[in-house]
Amino acid sequence: MKRSECIKALYPEFETCLVVTIMGACAQELYDLGHRDNFFYLQHAMGLASSIGLGLALNRPQERVVVLDGDGSVLMNLGTLTTLARYRPANLIHLIFDNGSLLSTGGFASHTASGITDLAAMARGAGIAHVAAVSTLYEFMQAAADAFERRDLSVIVAKVEATGPDHFGMDLKLPENAFRFERYIREK
Amino acid sequence: MTVSRENSKALYAGIKAAGIRFITALPETWLVYLLQMAESDPEMCLIEVAKEEEAVGIAAGAYFAGTPNVMLLQNHGFLGAINGIVSLAMLYRVPLCMLIAHRGHMGEPYPWHTQGGIVTEPVLRGLGIPFDYAREPGKIGRQIQEAYTFSRSSLSPVALLLTRDLMEGDV
After folding, report:
1. Is residue B26 within 8 Å of residue B74, measured between CB atoms?
2. How near does any CA of chain B get to the CA of A183, in Å?
3. Residue A107 has pLDDT above 90, yes or no
4. How far apart are CA A161 and CA B144, in angstroms?
5. N or C: which end of chain A has fewer CB within 10 A?
6. What is the spatial distance between Cα A108 and Cα A103, in angstroms, rounded to a whole number?
7. What is the bridge-based pairing of β-strands B22-25 and B45-48?
8. Residues in A touching B61 (Cβ below 8 Å)
9. A122 SS3 class
10. What are the pLDDT digits (tens) for B91-112?
11. Which of B81, B160, B123 is nearest to A48 (CA)?
């Protein structure tokens, strides 16, 4: 399974959500499907996408918030799993694409490679009630459908191939992305 | 010396008067009464984090969502959160209003606080983060309001350093 397939499959759902992505390949794959002002790409500050999602979800309980995260980023902010579990925003879906690799920075193996570290088990251990671990697109879509239907914090750890786009670049300056995202929410 | 309950009340009143309804924090001795007040205030949402850098992300999310918020943290937590402050807040022009317990400065009896205390001001200057010292309970309300206002107009992190004069006392 490729992350780009998962993102493409959920893209229509994202139209009405607030979406926060991590840097690099993940951000690019979403952007390439067509940018919307309800998408925020965190191109640095690794680990904080889920924290931004938490701040959004707690303050906009009527909106659905989706975080597109990765193993490398989650490993940089493991405490976020415990904070998410404690405050349990019902409107937050945390998708962790686990490619076992720091793909966007040279493809070095992450601690989840070869099954050494199990992020789904860590999320469960943190106290998150709804955690799915999936490795096929069918399973991913099933878990995503459950998550979108359920009104409770949901984490999906999707094992994906360590592949990304062959190009990087957006016609969107970083503060411009933040300004448009903030305005989208304000005017909604 | 103990933490001043009365000055903590003045500080909390200042936070409320500035319209703040969302606080991210990591518990710290000088902030104990503030956090207790926030926790028992039905009008306030208090989010306690595992590490201060998380609070930068949560504060950014709250800002995007339109909720006036502040971060309460110790200066060592500020030092630990710098990548988030630089590569989220400053990079994307997201305002942050940080109320920072300035441990490890004049009068500090505990050796473990000292290095962090000594470097706090130079690090703030190095990062170009506007800051002010809060020393008097009578001025703290206005200082919080001004720090918050400036963070929003400048789209920058702004720090208010909560000093020993303000945070410690017999009452």
Report:
1. yes
2. 8
3. no
4. 49
5. C
6. 7
7. parallel
8. 20, 51-59
9. helix
10. 999 999 999 999 999 999 999 9
11. B81
